[in-house]
Automatic annotation (TrEMBL):
This is Pyrrolo-quinoline quinone repeat domain-containing protein. Residues 1-21 form the signal peptide. Gene3D superfamilies: YVTN repeat-like/Quinoprotein amine dehydrogenase (2.130.10.10). PANTHER family: DIHYDRO-HEME D1 DEHYDROGENASE, PROTEIN NIRF. Residues 87-190 form the Pyrrolo-quinoline quinone repeat domain. SUPFAM superfamilies: YVTN repeat-like/Quinoprotein amine dehydrogenase. It comes from Lignipirellula cremea. Keywords: Signal. It comes from the Bacteria.
Length: 378
């Protein structure tokens, strides 16, 4: 067991280990939580799909008491995952046994539980109070027990919604749907260390590059005629570097909800859910330039992530696209033969197993991986 855990750690620190690869084949899976608190299709629980077998359903983990899911994250070092649900609850699940380890419901005065994040060592959870909440704190929670450790005062008006822990675990980036400034928390002190902005309108979904130095933010660009797009913020200086949009679609008055970097950070994908479109931008130039549009099957909440190898793009519609060819290749469904009803959710992540040990977990956000610090997830 010690050898297997050592091999898992080597995989977490830097990618492929020939010895580990020779020992056992890696299973790559996607864990999709359901039902999505922001709307979706599926039964209460977790749908697990095999990435290397046409994204076929391999099992369903029934969680009958699971309420609308708000966020999901996992840690390879501890073989655990966490789901925020029902607006004020968080549960911990063992990835090896599929059993619930603990569940906590936080009191109203402690705020809610929105898109949670975990440090790479699996010790601390960061829990935003929720886009629906006037509470202006991010809760710091013991990931092993669910115990509340601290409340960090962040946004003056509450609305704390989307949150990302950087690959190196040193910072937490969190946005509020009631503010025009992104907040950055130092995980050593658990205090706000930087504010990034102001942006146009308020903050919607966001992502970051692998080095944790740059934020890509869905904002209300339509208010100033920019069309579908995003803003880019520099985390060190706190300044907005670029506003990137589609001025040719300035007549559109809907917000974009969903943004992801390809793992190699060469492209930015943006979900214009109102028009059922994915807008793709070339991120190899500065500022990024529009490349093309991919149609989506349904008008949903709006979300986009990528497989760690960059081969697949996953949308909350349950559609799976070949990221290079920009073609639909699979659909998540509720049946192993792929012929069931579509499963739609914006709370999902990738897991790699060697035997029954998790050796890699992805994030629920479409984060980049270039320059990811040593000691982070690969």
């Amino acid at each position: 067991m010690r050898l297997r855990k050592l091999l898992a750690l080597l995989a977490i620190l830097g990618g492929c280990c020939p010895l580990a690869a020779a020992e056992e084949t890696v299973k790559r899976q996607v864990y999709v939580t359901s039902r999505d608190g922001a709307g979706g299709h599926g039964e209460k629980g977790i749908y697990v799909y095999d990435i290397d077998n046409d994204h076929k359903l391999v099992r369903f983990i029934a969680l009958p008491k699971l309420e609308g899911t708000r966020g999901a994250c996992a840690c390879a070092a501890t073989d655990k995952m966490w789901i925020s649900h029902g607006n004020e609850k968080v549960l911990c699940l063992d990835l090896k046994t599929d059993k619930i380890v603990w569940e906590v419901q936080y009191a109203k005065e402690e705020g809610g539980a929105d898109r949670i994040g975990v440090t790479p060592d699996g010790r601390k959870l960061y829990v935003p109070s929720g886009w629906w909440s006037g509470d202006n704190h991010v809760k710091v929670v013991d990931a092993e027990t669910g115990e509340l450790l601290k409340k960090i005062k962040v946004a003056p008006n509450g609305g704390l919604h989307n949150l990302i822990v950087t690959h190196d675990g040193q910072r937490v980036v969190v946005g509020s749907t009631r503010e025009d400034m992104l907040s950055v928390i130092d995980t050593k002190t658990d205090e706000v260390m930087q504010r990034v902005g102001p942006i146009i309108g308020v903050i919607q979904p966001l992502t970051i590059n692998g080095a944790g130095t740059t934020a890509y933010i869905n904002t209300h660009l339509y208010r100033e005629g920019h069309g579908p797009g995003f803003e880019i913020g520099d985390i060190a200086s706190g300044k907005i570097l670029h506003v990137v949009g589609r001025p040719d679609l300035a007549e559109r008055t809907s917000r974009c909800h969903g943004i992801g970097l390809t793992p190699d950070e060469s492209e930015v994908w943006v979900v214009d859910q109102g028009y059922k479109e994915l807008h793709i931008f070339d991120n190899t130039v500065s500022p990024p330039k529009f490349k093309q549009v991919i149609p989506m099957a349904a008008k949903t909440h709006g979300w986009i992530c990528f497989s760690r190898d960059g081969r697949y793009a996953w949308c909350d519609t349950g559609e799976v696209f070949d990221a290079a060819a920009k073609k639909l290749v699979a659909q998540w469904t509720d049946q192993p033969d792929g012929k069931g009803d579509p499963v739609m959710s914006s709370k999902f992540f990738e897991v790699h197993f060697r035997g029954d040990d998790a050796v890699f977990v992805g994030q629920q956000m479409g984060v980049g991986y270039v320059g990811a610090a040593e000691g982070s997830s690969p």
